[in-house]
Amino acid sequence: MAKQFPEGFLWGGATAANQFEGGFHKGNKGLNIADVLPGGKERLEILGNPGFDFEIDPNKYYPNHDAIDFYNRYKEDIALFAEMGFKVFRTSIAWTRIFPNGDELEPNEEGLAFYDRVFDELIKHGIEPVVTISHYEMPVHLVKEYGGWRNREVITFFERYAEAIFNRYKGKVKYWMTFNEINSGLMMPIMGLGFAIQKEADKYQPTFQAFHHQFVASAKAVKLCREIMPEAQIGCMIIYAPVYAFDSKPENVMHALEEEELFNYFCADVQVRGEYPAFINRYFKEHNIELEMEDGDLDILKEGTVDYIGFSYYMSRTEKKDKSNEEGIQGNIMQGVKNPFLQASDWGWEIDPVGLRISLNKLYGRYEVPLFIVENGLGAYDKVEEDGSIQDDYRIDYLREHMKQMGEAIEDGVELMGYTSWGCIDLVSASTGEMSKRYGFIYVDKHDDGTGTLERKRKKSFYWYKDVIDSNGENL
Q1: In angstroms, rounded to a whole number, what is the distance separating the alpha carbons of residues 441 and 327?
Q2: What's the domain count of the chain?
Q3: CA-based max dimension of the chain
Q4: Is 169 a member of any domain?
Q5: How many Å apart are CA 311 and CA 416, to the nearest integer?
Q6: Catalytic pick from 121, 128, 375, 434?
Q7: Residue 414 in domain
Q8: Could you tell me the CATH number of the domain that includes residue 365?
């Protein structure tokens, strides 16, 4: 029997502007980081190797430019979300629609008006917007002219951007998050921090200096949000993947703990507790990191703590101090060793529903603030049958097992606000730029080479999720 979900639980779906909007030059929008990342395996190489130049190559295909054309089809798509019964819809605002270069003094009215139309359409259908302020779409101008988040001046530009959207949408949006998967900057600073590492050996100082600037910017945005919209809630957003020790050998247990503290907790500690955690001091010392701070920075962090933690959960991670004799895994920008007890998706991401319950308990035990699962889902190859149907039982199985563990965590005492399944409509993959890696309840006829009619089709999971929402999680 399914565990009872609380009344008012926020069921819905999640997307990001850069991965589904398209219209990359419409409405006076500027170029962002996603616009200069080509599709396919080349994108993974760019994200993992030093020296990227943030230029568009006319000989390459850039899937985010058109994506699935939500920019023109938002009414059709929102009607489908409403048909499923969404209570909330998580999306992001493209920074370059509001400030095309990022450093302008006045916002772009065409961009502001576009999101007015989107939010009005959602509200018309009884769907609350959940908005990420920055989701892997930093203006390229800020990357090239300022060096991305390494430059303290970017805090001012972000604050101006946040103030503009808070003032504009204060009557329409009451759930906000500052930076998407902020801790991803540890693995891929290109998307998260707005710069490419030039030499692997030099990555530590600029990475953590950039984090500090993001932390200050996030705290300032939280304070602004409270001043402009006292009734709103604003959270942080992290990738969370519980780290298991490969075995009970103490060295492996310690190694897993160190990996978990740095990746899962460092960013959240600063944003939720308002201060740098003790464990980071040794890490800074061992990697010769000396943060440049201004007077008052630590006070700003203390005053700008978030109301809730949004997080993505796709998989767990298993770690061993010496990986040389173990089969490695690659999943969601994280590397570890193969867990013999878990199966993997088509893209090699290990599937671990119980890991979600573990994550919820660990996060709630550490922070005691409400939690919001804002990304979870299965990227898979979908086949359109001769009758036009998409029988995605594998996705239903994946989601059902994770939702059961959410129910168990609520029973454990975890305060869980809601759940937005990632890529509720098929969209461009962030890490590989593929369309074939599909997450949606809604199929979009668009392919890795850019061909397709963009026709929308309901998958089998569409009707299943509608029933889940209708029953508030009782009918899984």
Answers
A1: 33
A2: 1
A3: 66
A4: yes
A5: 11
A6: 375
A7: yes
A8: 3.20.20.80
Residue given tokens 């461009």 in the structure block? 428
The one-letter code for the residue type at 168 is R
> Residue 253 in 3-state DSSP?
helix
Distances from the Cα of 434 to the Cαs of 39, 48, 49, 198, 349, in angstroms?
6, 17, 19, 26, 16
The answer to whether position 476 is within a domain reads: no
Task: Give 327: exposed, middle or buried? Use CB within 10 Å, 0-12, 13-18, 19+.
Answer: exposed
Residue 5 inside a domain? The answer is: no
What is the four-CA torsion angle of 213, 208, 201, 322, rounded to 10 degrees? -150
Cβ–Cβ under 8 Å, residues 293 and 212? yes
Taking alpha carbons only, the member of 76, 98, 93 closest to residue 17 is 93
Structural domain boundaries enclosing 149: 10-470
Contacts of residue 240, defined as CB under 8 A and 6 or more positions apart, other chains included, come to 264, 311, 312, 313, 359, 363
In 2-59, at which residue ranges do the beta strands (DSSP E only) sit?
Answer: 10-14
- Please report, in tens digits, the pLDDT of each residue of the chain (476 residues total): 567 799 999 999 999 999 999 999 999 999 999 999 999 888 988 987 888 999 999 999 999 999 999 999 999 999 999 999 999 999 999 999 999 999 999 999 999 999 999 999 999 999 999 999 999 999 999 999 999 999 999 999 999 999 999 999 999 999 999 999 999 999 989 999 999 987 776 789 999 999 999 999 999 999 999 999 999 999 999 999 999 999 999 999 999 999 999 999 999 999 999 999 999 999 999 999 999 999 999 999 999 999 999 999 999 999 999 887 777 666 656 778 889 999 988 888 899 999 999 999 999 999 999 999 999 999 999 999 999 999 999 999 999 999 999 999 999 999 999 999 999 999 999 989 999 999 999 999 999 999 999 999 999 999 999 999 999 999 99
Residue that the structure tokens 């009884």 belong to: 126
Active site residue 258: no
Q: Does the predicted model carry a pTM greater than 0.90?
A: yes
